[in-house]
Amino acid sequence: MKAILPPQFSILAAALAACTQLSTLTPQTASAQSPVPDGFNPGANEEVTSLAVQADGKILVGGGFTNLGGQARNYMGRLYADGTLDSGFNPGTGAVIDPTVYSLAVQADGKILVGGGFTTLGGQPRNYIGRLTANGTLDSGFNPGANDRVNSLAVQPDGKILVVGNFTTLGGQTRNRIGRLNADGTRDSGFNPGANDRVFPLAVQADGKILVGGFFTTVGGQTRNRIARLNANGSLDSGFNPGANDRVYALAVQADGKILVSGWFTTLGGQTRTGIGRLNANGTLDTGFNPGACYRVISLPVQADGKILLGGEFTTLGGQARNYIGRAGVSSHSHF
């Protein structure tokens, strides 16, 4: 899922406040970067791993929960902008092992792409990927299928659908953890970069280039340690190779083109970075950005009003109780 962040908002601050360890920050820095939670507090009973905002302002929520906003919702639900539950939206997923919804993306026509560990969606068989209509009913004509978990989805401006995860087949053909579908769900036969291990986050830049992160050490047959960039046609961007020493779980492209990276790493671009760092658009490390963080914020899209939605494993946000989902702006003193 793609998150485009306005540069005046510090997504980092919200991630830090969701964690219990702020030892890498001085008290002055931590105070300057504190998020400001608002009254948005629907609550979930387990982790929230995906959030997406519809054009009408409604908020799609996916994760490992079975309760959202005080009501039964199996791994997926929808909220109004004020955080109240949309009672008419309840598709649900299921699986023997892992029914979690790991990714949500909204198409231009309002249809909702869903990826995860599930094998049923809306009560019908769907192997790890499916699509809903805007009202939450299953799109019966979309059923590409994968052979393992889908971790992230993104819709390109031309309507094509990028898919990354743990799979080695997509749409019935070999696709090693990275693939692309046409808008109708058929496989894009010309796109096949491949990675040698799991791919988790996915982000699309304004120029159409595609960022991927995860566990891998090769992409497109070339060495790329846990972060890589593809050209729009799927070929490897040979000039982008910052590298991280451990897994990358989240990527976000700021409006100024800089790239936020978070995960379990302790080095990024050859320099010490604990859990979070920022790259310049050319892949070099932003040396002025080094706050340190933990990894418990997993999903962080931004609403049209600039407020930041957060999903993850946290139970507090900005010192206030927020069970796995919250929303925050940042103080007027916040800055990058």
Summarize the structure.
The protein has 336 residues and is mainly beta.
CATH class of the domain at 43-192: Mainly Beta
Distance between the termini: 23 Å
What spatial order of strands do you see in the largest sheet?
A: 1-24-25-28
CATH superfamily heading of the domain at 43-192: TolB, C-terminal domain
Report helical residue fraction.
under 10%
% residues in beta strands: 35-45%
Low-confidence stretches: 1-35, 330-336
Structural class: mainly beta
Biggest sheet, open or closed, and with what strands and sense? Answer: 4 strands, mixed
Assembly context of the chains: single chain
User: Average pLDDT across residues?
Assistant: 84
C-alpha Rg, in Å?
A: 19 Å
Shape: globular
The tally of strands reads: 33
Number of helices: 2
CATH topological fold name of the domain at 43-192? Neuraminidase
CATH architecture of the domain at 43-192: 6 Propeller
Tell me about this structure.
The protein has helices at residues 11-17, 27-32; strands at 4-5, 35-37, 48-53, 59-63, 67-68, 71-72, 76-79, 93-94, 101-106, 112-116, 120-121, 124-125, 129-132, 150-155, 161-165, 169-170, 173-174, 178-181, 199-204, 210-214, 218-219, 222-223, 227-230, 248-254, 259-263, 267-268, 271-272, 276-279, 297-299, 308-312, 316-317, 320-321, 325-330. By secondary structure, it is mostly beta strands. It has a domain at 43-192: Neuraminidase.
Main attributes of the structure:
336 residues; mainly beta; Neuraminidase; 4-stranded antiparallel sheet; 33 strands; 4% helix; disordered N terminus; disordered C terminus
